[in-house]
């Protein structure tokens, strides 16, 4: 625990900082929308005491609907469990003072304002760390704190400028965005990893630090083999639809009722695929013996596979091929994905809260043998815990005043 957070902890609402691998950590969450809130939800699941600081109008995602559960956006519900909410207007001197006091006591501060946007309120890293030298301060931006600091960061923009959209869609069609804000989620994960690494360093040295994550860097590392193909081989990849540039079969192929992803990434898997399909001779054909041969002659091989796959349904082939050790899977809608997770005993849905506050949410993705994730609080209503948090922040030494708040469009 940071010395700045000291002995007094917020109480009420069911939070229990003593439980979970991150029990005892206080996280001041000044982030909005997706990347930051996703990171702090992961930390809250693992026991961190997360205080979600919202403006008077609340997090933007509260109104991002449909879909909704009652009058609350399911977007907001999906990334904000385990937290307590306090509404603070940084342009108000008293509220800004409480925000600085929260940052002074926190072990972790996380924000995704535009670079420099919090400096006028004394909530930037240099000011916060001066009064709280052990703090881990995580900043998420679109394009970093250097020359790209002035560019607003939105996932769709980053999908475009990073090159991802150039890889997504039919070869002869327009580029497409991914179906989710993939780089916001990736940056949220990177922020959580960075925070945990910095906490490990603090445990060893007592020293906090600044952790910076930006969407573009997360995107470029997330493009993995395509990034490596360019930086190490000078290759600029192109749009191939659902095909893989280096492996075949590794794409959806039509079964009797719908498409089935078939992945035969090595020669042994391809041989087993051919045996289950009843065409073992194809695996011995010199045209298709090795992956490089199959990839080069994919247009010759595809019809041979499709002819057999069309004789059964996707689920029938799924059971047969998986049993034989061939990776595959039907192209589901999201309900099918949850159904498959249930079938495999992954228990993908957890209910948080009680009575009319109970909210079904998606289970934390990591399983621990000794310190499992826990789901203590439902996603908070705006300023739901404001009274208790204000009382706690006003109790004890005040943080020093900082300047005069100015109007801000951040």
UniProtKB/TrEMBL annotation:
Which keywords, in A-to-Z order, does the entry hold?
Answer: Transferase
Q: Name one GO molecular function term.
A: CoA-transferase activity
Q: Does the keyword DNA repair apply?
A: no
Residue ranges annotated as transmembrane are: none
Q: Where is the signal peptide?
A: none
- Could you tell me which InterPro entries the record lists for this protein? CoA-transferase_III_domain, CoA-Trfase_fam_III, CoA-Trfase_III_dom3_sf, CoA-Trfase_III_dom_1_sf
Pfam families with a match to the protein in the record:
CoA_transf_3
Taxonomically, the superkingdom here is Bacteria
The molecule here is called CoA transferase
| Species of origin | Streptomyces armeniacus
